[in-house]
Amino acid sequence: MTMKDIPHKPPGALRLAFRVSPFCSALFLLLSIIHAIMPTAATALATANFVDTAGAILLGERVHDDIYLPLILLLLTLGVYTTIGSVNKLVSARITLNMQRRLKPAIVGKTAALDFKHIENADSWELISRVSREPDKIIMEGFNGYIQIGQIMVSMAAVLVLIVAQVWWAALVIAVFSIPMIRLALWAGRKTYKAEVDAEKFNRRTEYLGQVLSGRDPIDERTLFGYGDDVVERWQEQYEAGRKLWMKVWFRSMSIAKTSTVFLAAIAIGIALTLINPVINGLITPGMFMGILTAVYSVINQMGYQLTDSLEKVSKSGEFMKDMSDFAALSESDGALDLPDAGPVGFTDLEFRDVRFKYPTGDNYVLDGISFRIERGRNYAFVGKNGAGKTTITKLLTGLYTQYEGEILINGKELRTYPMSTLKALFSVVYQDFAKYYISMSGNIGLGDVNLMDKRDPAKPGNHITDPISVGADARINQASAANAVTNPPEATPTAGGIDPVAAANLTGLGETIAELAKGMETPLGKVLEGGQDISGGQWQRVAIARSLVSRTPVKMLDEPTAALDPISESRIYEEFEKLMEGKTTVFISHRLGSTKLADEILVIDGGIVSESGTHDELMSENGQYAEMFEAQRGWYL
Fold it and tell me: Which of 181, 293, 330, 428 has the most CB atoms around its CB within 10 Å?
């Protein structure tokens, strides 16, 4: 299922349930109708028959044995009624499972394919958050709401048929009163969902502050600086703001439900009083009197709280389906889900020609006419102040944004004419805010080359994401050598354009870390999987760099990847990286300039353009911005 297959028009929740689980949904509907008829057509009549028979026996008009059949029918009716309710819960659970299995992958797939601008936009990200948070729950509430409304309507119709011959005006009052109740409940449902939308920004803030208060990553600073009380106060402020929005609508909804219930209870009392004379005069048997009142009170209860609640859920799910429609309409990036090209990708040069770019939500150009050229086999370094546009260059090169002015040429061809799969095979980037994958160490590193991750039959045992690297004849990790990789590090030799993962781990200084892991390279990182072990922030950075070394892409870009390392370790990694990438094209982006001396050309980015360029010695002799920055950091490397 994709987002295109999801119905968005009313009744969207009902239609979607029948689409993902047609048999179970049809069975649920059928059982619900039977369940709705039984209180009136069966339970009320069975109760009337039992009471009338018992009364006749007490008066001596019938023998004692006559009570058994009405009693059996009454117990059987109640048993069937209860059984249907239990079976329906199981069927509903099955529909929910099918909804999760079909719906969540569609939402995840859509999110993964979105244009990157939607990810960095606050409004669209709130929409994505709302749609992604328990969508199956909201849709199933809407589905159940539709079914419950149908049940109530069927119950009402059955009761009205039962009493219309006795108290026709009561049937008319109940029918007329239900119209404004339905309108009020639908209005309350829309208001409830709108309140949840308005409260979303507060919910996101409380979630973030809650993570700061209870998460593992900030625990050191939380203890050291003692900012817990202040964060608790801010969390309370955001929580209260969201809670007040919700409570305002909830109180209004409950007022409607309770007022409706009181009014309907008055109608039920009126019906009971009206039926007393017919009972006294013998026009209605005592059993029928009790049966009618039982059915009426059952419907009154349903029309009070249950009808209001069901209509609110239907209205809420309708508003959610509108959000789903807006989410489905968000633009996608062509080829976002494609794997990188498997074959070798040729690269000769890339060039920025008077490129200007501003973010979709920004007013100012981050890049304002920048031009430069990068050639194969050379090492480059981009330096500059925060916000100069260095990371933006990597986002343009990797195709995350294509709405730029000017030209970006790769091998003389405009970047926007390349498929995304080719761009993925051209560039490997290690960002400062790299991803942490809570899978095995080997899996973390092996993700650098997904085309060689899975050469085995997917159906074989053990072929899953926690063991993605040990693959067939073309395996990038040798399990036997991995065990002694720490004591006997292998040579850093390219494998089909990339580097062996064990060698990559050792080149980035992970040898001692692997030796301390319980299962070596196959130890899960983090605490999500069983047997997982934590590693430090600096070690995570080394894993990210090792992942880039494994990649077979011809252009390697490192965007502040060593921020958590000390300057000496940083210099060592860059030196090893330079040796390893000899003959390849590398781009370093860094505030710390100890690594820039290794570059064949340094480009200083300032004001959205290249303000200086040249080798380290050339730029130092110019005494410009680069020289000033380097002199300020010289002491770090002495």
Answer: 428
